[in-house]
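Bumping with the actual sequence this time:
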Amino acid sequence: MKIRTLLAAITLGSASLLAASVAQANDKKVVVAYQTDALPSSVAIANGDLAKATGYEIDFRKFNSGAEIFAAIASGDVAVGYVGSSPFAAAISRGLEVKAFYLSSISGIDEALVVRNGSGISSLSDLKGKKLAAAPVSTDHYQLLALIRSLGLTEKDVQVFAIPQPEIVASYNRGDIDGGFVWDPALTELKKSGKVLVTSKDVADKGAPTFSAWVAASKFADENPAFLKSFASVINKYYASFAADKKAWDADSENAKLLAKTLGGTPEQQAAALKNLTLLTPEVQASEAWLGGGEKSGAAKILKDTAAFLKDQGKVSEVLPSYAAFVTPDALVNASN
């Protein structure tokens, strides 16, 4: 989705967002948006555990990017969504009121820049003059631009196309682009005829960390704290299972089969993708290093730094004085595993 489209949706949708949040709270129905990332908690989408634990009728809707999800939140169609830190920073810098209440993962090897065989790229020094792509306003887009800048290059030196992941895969396979910064299932597809040049963790180490999170419209979050706590507790349960029982998440497991059914790809691909995640325990998430700590919150700092970068790139017009109001550890405090 283009920046202007997102801005228009945010501007025009603020009134309907407030009305939708109230309606959802009253009748215990809520629309939750998710993406195709392989996460242990996605099994709870497939088997109904999230709906059962929260007591809400949940309409789960799959989206291609965080930018699309934020546009849906702004229009009032969605109250809770799974997003990346870059579209998150962009949306709140434009005035959207949302709160991150659970960090799904942080910069790891589950997102990466893959370059096509035959592209002539064997190292970062070969990127000049090449054509690369990432989903618009995604964490991958942010990290791709940050990587290019860290190399002393600009978008005049490297052509960057902001297109949805399905289009990236198609363009890559046709040979129209030389590489793409993507997540699964696109990551697995691109690696079939290319190689990983750099991962999200590598770019984070260069000074551009990212995270993915579950966020809620602020009004909905304020009026439905029990829902968020129950939602977080279910995620905790599946993350704990993944950490303690690897066999329950291997390619032959029911969990991997459910992930494939819900997200696409094969059980083998889903099981492999799970191994690439960098997950945080509830205690670490709630600490000052991430969601806790108010102004000292690590997540709030990442959002502000990301917004500053996006402003330098001309993607947003303003950086807020503080991003602390957009992250909260409340759903994780005393949440059961």
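The tokens above came from a reply further down the thread. DSSP finds 15 helices and ten strands in the chain.
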